[in-house]
Amino acid sequence: MQKETVVLIVGAGPAGLAISACLNLQNVPNIVLEKEDLCASLWKKRSYDRLKLHLAKQFCELPHMPFPQNAPTFVSKTGFIQYLDNYVSHFNVNPVYHRTVESASFDKRGGKWLIIVRNTLFNMVEKYEGTFLVVATGENSEGYIPNIPGLGSFCGEVMHSNHYENGKTFDGKNVLVVGCGNSGMEIAYDLSNSGAQTSIVVRSPVHVLTKRMVQLGMVLLKFVTCELVDNIILTLSKLNYGNLSDYGLQRPKQGPFYLKNTTGRSPVIDVGTMEKIKAQKIKVLPSIRKVNGDYIQFANGETKSFDAIVFATGYKSTVRKWLKDDGGLFNEEGMPKKRVPNHWKGENGLYCAGFSRGGLYGISNDAKGRKEAELDNADHELSSKRKAVEESINENSFITEAIAWEMSRGLTSGCEQDIKKLENYLPLLENLVHHVDLVSNNHRITCWILDLKIRWSITLTSSSIFHLHGPKFYQINDLHFELGMILVI
């Protein structure tokens, strides 16, 4: 039996759910195929217990549905799963579960996409046909563990971070975490809190920021250049954490938001790990040279014994295993060849979502006003459906492209509202204004600071962020307007 529809969506993660919801609002028939027995399986089955959204909730909303007003700024794993379930129910998204795609090819004669699917519940082969195909399996399809010499000889427990739940079973054990991204750093923190003797392998330079620093940067990107925001945020990071090289960490040469936009590499959002590293409760180690039984040799020649290894080394795409006619949309690693924001559209009605190397990012209201793609199909009915698909992709793309969008769009119609949001960050900026000229050699920042200094009073106040002392702004209400004007100009 062959089932037909207009749009076939492979993957029921946040990207696939959002696209289906947008299409449903425009009455475009679609089918979502999901290999697991539930939607958002990465969140529900393969994420650790203490996980929270690393960005504020307004940057993590799916199209057309904000988080409840009483939701915390940084939503928990449980809260986000509840939000996704409510989203699916509200927009009548009905994924077809237990469907593993074995192949997807384009029939040039019929002008349709043909997908061969394995129904794993009954071990049956099914066929689906659609005018459009949206690949929404994302970049986190399968956990990646690097090939390390001798790893097979390790006698202890080896797991990928997608199987890690909490540190309760590791109490009193020597555990090595490989990977210093957000997952690796947070898992190391959780293990240490659970009584494990924890070490972490740090192979590459990394930016370490607080959640509030990232939130501040996301707001400032609406008003000033990425270069200036990186300078401001790096100054705050240096004031807060000091010289990271003292603890075995190195900062990249490029700024955190520049790297996010150009390479997809995220800064580490500190949840308390740095304090434990500074206190030597978590030991930082270089890359692994080889494994010999329980002993692991590192690049610096040091050899240590461990009871378990947790690989927080990321994921890989599985698109190349089943997509046959991609028309050059994906490279050999299963990632789009083109860079954001031109990566999402292929040939013959092929699209992708969740592949911008950006993770889960918010969708701002004015993002929905993104310019529509030009259509060159002469058939009006097909053009209208293609338009609906592309609008849905465009809306949903901001789940994973918010930072790139924030960096490129300039001023928005929501400018006044965003200026008001800056009120939450005035303590940070107040301290920055007083201390930035001591550590910054950026001429633009220096000029900005000098222009603001004339509005200081002689009253001193204590900063709750860095526990330093600096001048207090003279008229705080006037500053809200003036700071906004300076940032906009």
UniProtKB/TrEMBL annotation:
Protein origin, superkingdom: Eukaryota
EC assignment: 1.-.-.-
SUPFAM superfamilies: FAD/NAD(P)-binding domain
Enzyme class, UniProt record, top EC level: oxidoreductase
Pfam family, one: FMO-like
Family: Belongs to the FMO family.
PANTHER family: FLAVIN-BINDING MONOOXYGENASE-LIKE PROTEIN (AFU_ORTHOLOGUE AFUA_4G09220), INDOLE-3-PYRUVATE MONOOXYGENASE YUCCA11-RELATED
Name of the protein: Flavin-containing monooxygenase
